[in-house]
């Protein structure tokens, strides 16, 4: 049995039931076999065994009182996975599905993603099984304050810097930041995605979606093609999906579909993004409300968004939202490119289909890295006590995404798998972290 297989077997034995973590670790580690062969020193230093074990894993009680005066209890998590190249960095997810396996898969992916940005940030992730949907602002605030009342002692501008993810946007970051400041009496860059009036960065809100489209455009450019005139399907209708749609439209693509967890809309004439923003960002409504105004558009309940024929597919909702059958349908319908705004939206089977059929395909840890990269730019601005213009941040973001594309293509080519950006992203992301871990000794 190979070293990689032994590490994976032990990981599954030690972490039973954490199926998303098993999936993410399997995807990464199996592509590292040739790197391990070339670098036997990694095995001697038990580098993979250390890499798959979080440096620290926190689980805590989050009690709060709802509007009816009832006491509610949620579970909070923060997994501080790897600090070899910088302070732990990664979002917080508030969603009823959250459990330790999901937080660990996200934290593990974050290690390699953050490395690919070229910026000094380690990997971490956190969250809670709290569901902000249907809660009043007052309830969300009560929850966030209780969550931070425990979390504050573990984080800091130079140790661990959380941000948003599913269910955590500007409102939640504001409440979390207010409570941190109140408890610690420190005004510091302990969270990113902050509001513009209290240390946030211009373009952070847009960054994940914009970055996704920048790297997609770069991949098309490398194939002498552009996004102009392409038919695009985007899943989700949250932060990433909205700003991916915006940038794709600005570059001349026609986005025809969006979704949420209830269903999907198809608008043959192209999505009216101002309407989507009004529904999702202002009203916090459901995507089906779109067809009340755009009466020529269709709404379909449930799954099925990947049955729409398109040139470019941008999954931007959640993990495992695109399975093997969905991939085969997209390929049969002529998809040219798939780039992941969400974290691990494709199952291992779907990924295999894209690679086998030579579809241009960029996995999430490379394609959605623009969000965390811009968070690191927010930290830099806070450290300098300066704010850069939107254009300056956006320029830097574009440079970072082009550089990520270069790194993943070069690593894929160097390991005899040109165009395989799953392997390219894993190897390029891994090597920097692995070398830093080797330099720092057995810790
Ligand atoms: N925000 C960021 O900067 C970054 C986010 N990501 C990843 O992008 C993805 C989307 O995040 P973000 O846009 O921030 O989150 P939001 O909470 O803003 O939006 C999430 C969207 O995905 C849908 N969704 C969530 N869970 C499910 C589910 N189980 N089934 C179907 N649809 C679902 C939501 O629908 P509904 O409203 O019905 O729940 C909503 O439309 C996640 O995978 C996240 O990890 C990656 C990098 C950075
Ligand atoms: O901005 C950040 O720190 C984290 C973003 C995030 O959670 C992610 O990249 O998945």
UniProtKB/TrEMBL annotation:
Entry keyword set: Oxidoreductase
Is the Oxidoreductase keyword given for this protein?
Answer: yes
The Glutamate/phenylalanine/leucine/valine/L-tryptophan dehydrogenase C-terminal domain, residue ranges? 201-441
The secretion signal range is: none
Q: What family does this chain come from, according to its entry?
A: Belongs to the Glu/Leu/Phe/Val dehydrogenases family.
Tell me one Pfam family matched here. Answer: ELFV_dehydrog_N
Tell me a Gene Ontology molecular-function term this record carries. Answer: glutamate dehydrogenase (NADP+) activity
What's the name of its gene?
A: gdhA
**How does the record describe its quaternary structure?**
Homohexamer.
CDD domains referenced in this protein's UniProt entry, alphabetically: NAD_bind_2_Glu_DH
| Protein name stated in the entry | Glutamate dehydrogenase
